[in-house]
Design brief:
By secondary structure, the protein is mainly alpha-helical. 28% of the residues lie in helices and 6% in strands. It has 14 helices and six strands. The strands form three sheets. It has a two-stranded antiparallel ribbon with strand order 1-2. The chain has a two-stranded antiparallel sheet with strand order 3-4. β3 (101-105) and β4 form a beta hairpin. The two termini are 27 Å apart. Residues 1-24 have low confidence and may be disordered.
């Protein structure tokens, strides 16, 4: 990754590139290991993609490529020409999500927790949704695409340049696995399985879980969850919000209804700006998503699609069709320069904070666009396309908020105070 912003120190080591936003000494050994794994591009079938490829710190731990964000917003995997179908969510603050569960809130039963946009990284396997999530991309054929979890273990155990070795954290025997001589060839091609004895397979499976737990430890660290935004420094008395930012915060909590899902902790406590639930906001399809090249009729069912694979939740599929995880609002506007475009929403339909706030405000007021318009086209035509999924659209908390253009701008100004790395002396 080529990062020119002076705020980041690039440390080159054999086999991996680590992008540091804080001293490695500030991290525990397990967090250091998790960070090294997070930035290791060798942990993909073609040794060209790391977790950080889609979750980069300089843009708030989400997708860093402006050219991709401005269009389909989904990222190409290790194998050329293969794409996911959703925008990368932020990996920062995601480790705070609880284990996926059904919870009664008022008169409603709501799903809470898990990771990924559809909640499928439940935390039921490793007791930690961030750890469950960390295992997914390594083996996903449209992401890092390794053919066998043992390949991840082999390359981590064989890595050079990690500041802390896997065995230093997890014990001297954790990498004592008899690898077959063709292991690297198997791990560099699709469809293979590393031939291990039953005992070595058990040890490899345990190591794979520990790799995920190490990544989750890094994602729980102060480097990922910095709480150093202007909003946070205000709570410590080290910064003051400007008048428009204060007005935006008041609207955020009041007329804009944002706080109903993007909760703010009371008593000066650290706020996650999400309640970890799921919602269908009525977002349109992103017409530039490459998924439609392969499947023009694709519809993203979100949480409902995941629940359909669970017998215990089968009766709740229809009531949750089209819902996606409520993301944190932290680092929404974090970017190395104003030139870089960021994308918003699970499918990256929106390219501006103003656009998505205006959508929240006017979704149910404007006429329906006659076609699959982009955000720019919809704003120019003063319309909004139909929701991708028409069932379960939230109409009680957004869609007709009666905000003025100035009030929309004020909310945007407040949201910009949530970017980590605020330095009062230079602002």
């Amino acid at each position: 990754m080529n990062i020119k912003c002076k705020r980041y120190l690039i440390v080159l080591v054999p086999a991996i590139t680590i992008t540091a936003t804080m001293s490695v000494d500030a991290l525990t050994p397990q967090e250091q290991l998790g960070k090294a794994i997070f930035f290791d591009s060798n942990l993909s079938i073609n040794k060209n993609q790391s977790c950080a490829s889609c979750h980069a710190p300089e843009v708030g731990w989400t997708g860093p490529n402006s050219a991709i964000n401005v269009r389909g917003s989904v990222y190409e995997g290790s194998i050329s020409g293969r794409f996911g179908n959703r925008k990368p969510p932020s990996s920062a603050y995601a480790a705070s999500s609880p284990v996926f569960h059904l919870e009664k809130q008022g008169k409603e039963w709501l799903f809470v927790g898990g990771n990924f946009w559809d909640g499928r990284a439940t935390g039921e396997k490793l007791g930690n949704p961030a750890a469950d999530q960390a295992q997914g991309p390594f083996l996903n054929p449209v992401e890092q695409a390794l053919p066998d979890s043992a390949c991840v273990v082999y390359r981590v155990c064989d890595a050079n340049g990690y500041p802390v070795g896997f065995e230093n954290v997890w014990g001297a025997e954790s990498c004592a696995i008899a690898w077959p001589p063709d292991v690297e060839a198997i791990c560099s091609a699709e469809g293979g399985t590393v031939d291990l004895t039953e005992a070595d397979r058990t040890k490899s499976d345990l190591a794979f879980d520990r790799i995920a737990l190490s990544i989750a430890a890094f994602e729980s660290s102060p480097e990922s969850n910095a709480f150093t935004s202007k909003f946070d420094l205000r709570l410590k008395g080290k910064a003051k919000l400007a008048q428009e930012e204060r007005r935006g915060f008041a609207l955020f909590k009041g007329k804009g209804k944002c706080v109903r899902c993007h909760t703010v902790a009371a008593g000066g406590k650290k706020s996650q700006f999400t309640d970890f639930t799921f919602d269908n906001l009525g977002l349109p399809k992103n017409p530039e998503n490459p998924v439609y090249d392969a499947d023009p009729g694709f519809v993203d069912p979100g949480l409902g699609g995941f629940l359909a694979k669970r017998l215990d939740y089968a009766a709740l599929v229809l009531a949750n069709d089209g819902k996606h995880k409520v993301p944190t609002l932290r680092n929404l506007d974090k970017r190395p320069s104003e030139v870089l475009v960021k994308a918003y929403g699970h499918n990256g339909y929106f390219k501006s904070l103003k656009g998505i706030i205006h959508f929240y405000n006017t979704r149910d007021v404007k006429p329906v666009c006659p076609g699959p318009y982009t955000e720019t086209e919809a704003l120019a035509a003063n319309c909004w396309p139909s929701p991708e999924v028409t069932a379960n659209v939230n109409t009680s908390e957004l869609g007709d908020l009666h905000l003025t253009a100035e009030e929309e701008d004020a909310i945007v100004a407040f949201l910009k105070t949530l970017s980590d790395g605020y330095a009062p002396s230079t602002q």
